Amino acid sequence: MIKLSLNVNHNTLTTRQDVRNYLIQEFLKEKPGTGNQKSAYRYDVETLSNGDKIFLERPAHLNKGMDFVIKVDNNIFPHASYYKKRQKWIWKNIEAPSHKSIFIDLYYKKIENSQVYQNLFLEIEKIYNVKNYSTSLNFKYGYPCDMLLGIIKWMFIEQDITYWNYSGREMLMKEILKYK
């Protein structure tokens, strides 16, 4: 796996289109695989306060062109899968954060401290609007805020790339708004 770094700086990349264009130009630099060997890339995109990295892996599992998987060093995330045969939800741990794991974290942060949560939500809105944001908030429950906000940032970007002819990040934001 080839390891690289990317820096999405909202001082210079101020619109969804700027971010999308920058990322796609970087992905276009990837070398193709050879024979039966695929080319694989890891892009470090955020450094957390504890030194761990948020990173992107390419190609993604479904291999939808420019798609990527968001992961965090030394972290496993809960994920729910619904099995129709048994008519129940089965929880398993996966390497990549899911939207559901983020929603659960937001839900419990709001219960823990609704006043601080409102400030957290303002930071999420900044990310949605492609603005710089602060990660200085603290909760006892769940993921550290720098990790949570970094994951949300990259989920928004992933949605903008995967669904660039549609609303992109708006689909995810509509779900996050349910936790406001």
Written account of the structure:
- The chain has 180 residues and is an alpha+beta fold.
- It has one domain (2-177).
- It contains five helices and six strands; from the N terminus they run βαβββββαααα.
- The protein has helices at 16-27, 99-112, 114-128, 145-162, 169-177; strands at 2-5, 41-47, 53-58, 69-72, 77-83, 88-94.
- Strands 1-2-3-4 form a four-stranded mixed β-sheet, covered by helices on one side. The protein has a two-stranded antiparallel ribbon with strand order 5-6.
- A hairpin with a 5-residue loop joins strand 2 and strand 3.
- Helix 2 packs antiparallel against helix 3 (114-128) and helix 4 packs across helix 5 (169-177).
- It is globular, with a radius of gyration of 17 Å.
- 28% of the residues are buried.
- The model has no long low-confidence stretch (mean pLDDT 88).
**Shape label:** globular
Order of secondary-structure elements:
EHEEEEEHHHH
Number of domains: 1
Please state the structural category.
alpha+beta
Note the topology.
Elements: E1 2-5, H1 16-27, E2 41-47, E3 53-58, E4 69-72, E5 77-83, E6 88-94, H2 99-112, H3 114-128, H4 145-162, H5 169-177
Parallel strand pairs: 1-2
Antiparallel strand pairs: 2-3, 3-4, 5-6
Helix pairs in contact: 2-3, 3-4, 4-5
